[in-house]
TrEMBL record:
PANTHER family: ARRESTIN DOMAIN CONTAINING 3-LIKE-RELATED, ARRESTIN DOMAIN CONTAINING PROTEIN. Gene3D superfamilies: 2.60.40.640. Belongs to the arrestin family. This is Arrestin domain-containing protein 3-like. It holds the Pfam family Arrestin_N. It comes from the Eukaryota. The gene is LOC115827939. SMART domains: Arrestin_C.
Length: 441
């Protein structure tokens, strides 16, 4: 700082207890300039900016490669003292001078403030004081931006379902299976994750049901990706003895101060996963991974849980003319951010169904398509039979999900077609037709 300009700083006024801002909010503040003697100011500028950037280095032999990228969201500016104004207005006497300002944060879909190991999303206020033939004086402060909850994410409030079987080989005999159900994929900060599991232990050893909730940070630049994972919490249940079947319900208390999910940034992502697995001695552990989206708290928390989840969480089924044997979402199926197959909204999510009805789209028998039946989108509305898929994940590879299952009700009786009367009606019609033919003869 020069002898003339003793101090310069930019501050803002909080609008809530958490000192956060969101899209559409007005952020007001002041630039404070303290001068030791009369100074002629060329210009005094304040900016509000939002941007993301990533940078890391990698060693390839004797060469160090820098990977860097950035994304700009907005840049707003105001001149508090403009160059070319009345010369007298650009001269300030000794003392402390305060210049107020106000910006409105743009109504855009922007990621939350974030700082990671090799990338960050920063929202800031910057001021710059310029004088002729002098080095400019600058100051900067950052403010926390929290986006509004994005409820348009596919399958956000739909149930999730997964199953996994494991056959033992060397040191353990028999098999184990786990079926897991979650109420939804999206959770607000501080909300508990309710996990329901059904475990069949047909092996020769006791197993334990365990839970691991972790975050994955992904950074992208120049076609490369850097991934960091961190386990947030880990819990386990009681041992499940051999030849035992058990239903387990557990609520995981997620820390309320964790970072919200970031899925709307091109160069970095913050994603959460819940790993539910069986700890099997002397064998690889069968596991199911669910994506979890952590939403920021909205202004109206009545939106957290619908009054009647069974009615409001799921959209109505599509018209019968739109139902076929292809995916309901069309050719562009959701990626790994989408949930595993949603669970049927029945009272008992683990109802047993005959194996012949558990089929995927590609495995549907040809003859069954000729039988009159009602088809609806998988796991969306009716508690009937569901197709199952397999799920996998790794920090560097996206999972491969099998074709979406379909839900089939029991075939209608012969002659009982939709909109064409019941079998009894058809019998009455046939009897009348036969009687008329007899009278004509």
């Amino acid at each position: 700082m020069s002898f003339t300009i003793k101090d310069i700083k930019v501050t803002y006024n909080a609008i809530n207890e958490k000192n956060t801002f969101t899209s559409g909010d007005f952020i007001s503040g002041q630039v404070t300039v303290e001068v030791a003697k009369t100074a002629e100011i060329q210009s005094l500028l304040v900016k509000a900016k939002g941007k993301a950037n990533v940078m890391w280095t990698e060693r390839h032999g004797q060469t160090t490669v820098v990977y860097h990228d950035k994304e700009k969201y907005f840049s707003l500016e105001q001149f508090l003292i403009r160059e070319g104004q009345n010369k007298d207005s650009n001269v300030i006497p000794p003392g402390t001078h305060v210049y107020p300002f106000t910006f409105q944060i743009p109504q855009q879909n922007m990621p939350a403030s974030f700082k990671g190991s090799v990338g960050k999303v920063v929202y800031s206020l910057e001021t710059k004081l310029s004088r002729s033939m002098r080095v400019s004086n600058k100051a900067k402060t950052e403010f926390a931006y929290v986006p509004k909850p994005d409820l348009t994410i596919p399958d956000l409030m739909l149930p999730q379902y997964g199953t996994k079987d494991k056959k033992m080989r060397v040191f353990t005999s028999g098999s184990v299976s786990i079926s897991t159900n979650m109420e939804k994929m999206g959770y607000y900060l501080g909300e508990g994750l309710k996990v329901m599991a059904e475990v069949h232990n047909n092996s020769s050893r006791a197993v334990k049901l365990k839970y691991s909730f972790y975050v994955k940070h992904s950074f992208f630049a120049r076609g490369r990706r850097r991934v960091h994972t961190h386990e947030i919490l880990k819990e386990q249940g009681e041992p499940i003895e051999p030849s035992t079947q058990r239903n387990v319900t557990r609520v995981l208390n997620i820390p309320p101060d964790i970072m919200t999910s970031i899925l709307n940034c091109r160069i970095l992502k913050v994603e959460y996963r819940l790993r539910v697995y069986l700890d099997v001695p002397y064998a690889s552990d069968p596991e199911i991974k669910f994506p979890v989206v952590i939403l920021p708290l909205g202004p109206d928390m009545s939106n957290m849980v619908p009054p009647n989840p069974d009615m409001n969480m799921m959209p109505p089924p599509p018209p019968y003319s739109e139902v076929g044997f292809g995916p309901y979402y069309g050719p562009n199926q959701p990626g790994w951010n989408s949930s595993p197959y949603p669970a049927p909204p029945s009272i008992n999510p683990y109802q047993n169904t005959s194996e012949q009805w558990r089929c995927g789209l590609s495995d549907l028998p040809t003859h069954s398509r000729r039988v009159p039946m009602t088809t609806v989108q998988a796991c969306r509305q009716l508690p009937a039979f569901t197709g199952l898929g397999c799920h996998d994940d790794s920090p560097l590879d996206s999972p491969h999900v099998s074709g979406r299952g379909i839900q089939l009700t029991n075939p209608l009786p012969v002659g009982e077609l939709q909109g064409k009367g019941t079998a009894a009606d058809l019998r009455d019609q046939n009897l009348k037709r036969t009687t008329l033919q007899s009278l004509q003869l």
